[in-house]
Amino acid sequence: MIRIASVLALTAMLMLPATARAQDADGPALITVTGKIGTPNRGGLDPFMDAYFNFQQKDFGKARTFTFAELKALPQRTVTANAEGWPGPVMATGPLLKDVMSAAGVNEDATVAFTAIDGYTVELDKAARAEQPWILAIEAGRKPLPLGGRGPAWLLHATGGAAVPSDEEARWVWSIILVEAK
């Protein structure tokens, strides 16, 4: 029941005019980066307009939002990833995580938490982020990742086509909408 309410709240939020969600006119915000950031482009949590974040009891004084166009404007990387139980490898494309974090003004030493639309959260510290060239995929198979699928953003890294075990795949958060720098 909570997941249904979360999805409905996010859907309503994404239907708001772009100016209500992001300062840029190139579409609604797909992901919001909060916490210890240096380059905010919006203010703090608005309990009414940020209904989903408020529902998830997230609070922030400033944030950096990214639209699809802003993520697409960053240098793109295509990776081939695979995990146990998948029907086969997936080619995913998006900016390097380090480039997104840099654009948000996140310190390299920060621990970063990635939260999906259903509240699933994974934290990666500096060492974990350095293990792989992580990307925030926004496309797979040359198509944007949809809500209700693995989008709007999917954290993953290349596996060279080899299937990684499920414990590694568990760090690959999909349907990311919130990133918190700690």
SSE string, helices as H and strands as E: HHEEHEHEEHEEHEEEEHE
Number of helices: 7
The shape, in one word, is: globular
How many DSSP E strands?
Answer: 12
- Helical residues, percent: 10-25%
N-to-C CA distance: 30 Å
Question: How many structural domains does the protein architecture include?
Answer: 1
Structural class designation? alpha+beta
- Using the CA coordinates, give the radius of gyration: 15 Å
Sheet-strand content, in percent, reads 25-35%
Could you report the average pLDDT, rounded to the nearest whole number?
89
Largest sheet: 6 strands, mixed
**pLDDT under 50 segments (min length 5)?**
1-23
Strand order, main sheet: write it out.
2-3-1-12-6-7
Q: What features would you describe in this structure?
A:
The chain has 182 residues and is α+β, with helices and mostly antiparallel strands. It has one domain. It has helices at residues 2-14, 18-21, 51-55, 68-73, 97-103, 126-131, 166-169, and strands spanning 29-35, 42-43, 62-67, 76-81, 90-95, 112-116, 121-124, 135-137, 139-140, 143-144, 154-156, 176-181. Strand 6 and strand 7 form a beta hairpin. The chain is globular. It starts with a helix and ends with a strand.
Question: Keywords, please?
Answer:
alpha+beta; six-stranded mixed beta sheet
Would you summarize the structure shown here?
The chain is built from 7 helices and 12 strands. It has helices spanning 2-14, 18-21, 51-55, 68-73, 97-103, 126-131, 166-169; strands spanning 29-35, 42-43, 62-67, 76-81, 90-95, 112-116, 121-124, 135-137, 139-140, 143-144, 154-156, 176-181.
